[in-house]
């Protein structure tokens, strides 16, 4: 295990590449011709009627001349007005795309301020991975955007590489607590409604933008240290939460030691009144179902997994969906590291356990390019984690954890590829690592279980 860091490093948020290509895993998501530099979302949501009224202001820069451009927006929402640089413009909204025609063509390098007024009854969008996006709950709402559900509640350039800062103003019925990404900078009560404004300074991928609404009790788990830790939960779950999430603060401290400084202003664990198939990560918080809060430690590995995504996925984000192992393999390996740290099975024992499962049920393709149908499959998570274990055995603990901390520092708030990780890893050893990458990333057949040299 790594030694304790001397002090918290400082990060300067940086935007990702000036442009991006459409992703072959989701060719209908994302847009070309411009680069978003900021989202300002002003949303009012009525819980009883599941009614959303929003104004989205998207600030961008064209990287090529634009006579027309598009944003992703679900057809369940009705557009009422679009303006570009203060002038109303023509638009068409169909098949999940909002096509906008500016009055005057935008030159390359030209600034764009696009304001979209819209509303309706938000619902998830259908995808090959099921329904994703805005979910109406029995007593509130949540967002489960990954990988292409963000357009279910706001117009955007829905591509993982298109990261930008956000300001989210959410107004909802006063009995409800509304959480969004970033730091809460103001709260104002207006009649029967409460307005909260959140500022997400660190650039964020659209699939990580989220709003959670419920009748929650707010708890402060840690306030005075480097990382404020909070919880939102139904009051009736208090004792069960204490049992299942009792080591949340210790987990934040352990991961900060292993992975480097926590990359955001605070962390919040949210537990809904509804059961969820799987927990959900968003930038700065994670959401769990009532079924994940049963008064035991049976789901603690999921608590660790979602927390680890704050470093691997939320701060350091894969530029292409084919590189999803950079999120899920790392978060899965964090589960094993936490198990060892907290007195459970060692990471090596976990790796051997899941290696046996991979032998019994091998994956159909390579880890480096699993294909859209397999990118969220369990074998990607587990094979990705064992790949990291193989690298750790080769490098040794000192260099391995130094590599991980350098990875999260160098690429904080940026987008990465597998090639970036391979290149960085090569600087932490004089030994060639090509056999690890070939065997674990680029070969379908499972190699022998890794051993220490």
Question: What does this entry look like structurally?
Answer:
With 453 residues, the protein is α+β, with helices and mostly antiparallel strands. It has two domains: 34-308, tricorn interacting facor f3 domain (Immunoglobulin-like), CATH 2.60.40.1730; 320-440, Orthogonal Bundle (Neutral Protease, domain 2). It contains nine helices and 23 strands. It has helices at residues 238-244, 248-259, 300-308, 325-341, 347-360, 378-395, 397-410, 418-425, 434-440, and strands at 34-46, 51-62, 69-72, 77-84, 87-88, 90-94, 97-101, 111-120, 125-127, 130-137, 140-144, 164-173, 177-180, 183-190, 193-204, 211-214, 217-222, 229-233, 267-271, 280-282, 285-288, 317-318, 415-416. The strands form five sheets. Strands 5-4-8-2-1-12-15-14 form an eight-stranded mixed sheet, with no helix packed on it. Strands 9-10-11-16-13 form a five-stranded antiparallel sheet, with no helix packed on it. Strands 17-18-19-21-20 form a five-stranded mixed sheet, covered by helices on one side. The chain starts with 33 loop residues before the first strand and ends in a 13-residue tail after the last helix. Mean pLDDT is 95; it is low at 1-16.
């Amino acid at each position: 295990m790594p030694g304790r860091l001397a002090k918290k490093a400082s990060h300067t948020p940086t935007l990702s590449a000036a442009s991006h290509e459409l992703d072959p895993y989701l060719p209908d998501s994302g847009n070309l011709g411009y680069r978003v530099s900021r989202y300002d979302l002003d949303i009012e949501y009525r819980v009883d009627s599941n009614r959303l009224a929003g104004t989205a202001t998207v600030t961008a820069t064209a990287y090529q001349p634009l006579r027309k451009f598009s944003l992703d927006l679900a057809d369940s929402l009705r557009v009422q007005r679009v303006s570009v640089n203060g002038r109303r413009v023509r638009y068409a909204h169909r098949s999940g795309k909002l096509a906008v025609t500016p009055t005057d063509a935008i030159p390359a390098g030209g600034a764009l301020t696009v304001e979209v007024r819209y509303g309706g009854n938000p619902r998830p969008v259908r995808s090959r991975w099921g329904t994703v996006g805005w979910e109406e709950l029995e007593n509130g709402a949540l967002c489960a955007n990954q990988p292409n559900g963000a357009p279910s509640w706001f117009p955007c350039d829905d591509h993982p590489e298109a990261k930008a800062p956000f300001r989210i103003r959410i107004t909802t019925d006063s009995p409800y607590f509304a959480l969004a990404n970033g730091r809460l900078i103001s709260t104002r009560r207006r009649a029967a409604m409460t307005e909260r404004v959140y500022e997400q300074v660190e650039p964020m991928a659209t699939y990580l933008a989220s709003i959670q609404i419920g009748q929650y009790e707010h708890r402060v788990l840690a306030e005075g240290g480097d990382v404020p830790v909070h919880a939102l939960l139904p009051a009736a779950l208090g004792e069960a939460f204490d049992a299942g999430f009792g080591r949340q603060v210790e987990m934040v401290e352990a991961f900060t030691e292993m992975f480097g400084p926590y990359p955001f202003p605070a962390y919040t664990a949210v537990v809904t009144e509804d059961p969820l198939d799987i927990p959900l990560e968003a930038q700065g918080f994670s959401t769990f179902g009532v079924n994940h809060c049963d008064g035991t430690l049976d789901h603690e590995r999921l608590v660790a997994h979602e927390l680890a995504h704050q470093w691997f996925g939320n701060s350091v984000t894969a530029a292409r969906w084919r590189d999803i192992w950079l999120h899920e393999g790392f978060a899965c390996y964090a589960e094993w590291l936490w198990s060892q740290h907290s007195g459970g099975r060692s990471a090596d024992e976990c790796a051997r356990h899941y290696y046996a499962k991979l032998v019994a049920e091998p994956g159909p393709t390579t880890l480096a390019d699993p294909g859209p149908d397999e990118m969220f499959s369990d074998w990607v998570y587990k094979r990705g984690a064992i790949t990291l274990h193989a690298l750790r055995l080769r490098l040794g603990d000192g260099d391995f954890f130094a590599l991980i901390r350098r990875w999260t520092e160098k690429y904080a708030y940026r987008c990465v590829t597998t090639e970036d990780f391979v290149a960085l890893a090569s600087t932490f050893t004089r030994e060639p690592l090509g056999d690890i990458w070939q065997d674990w990333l680029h070969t379908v057949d499972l190699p022998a279980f890794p051993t220490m040299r």
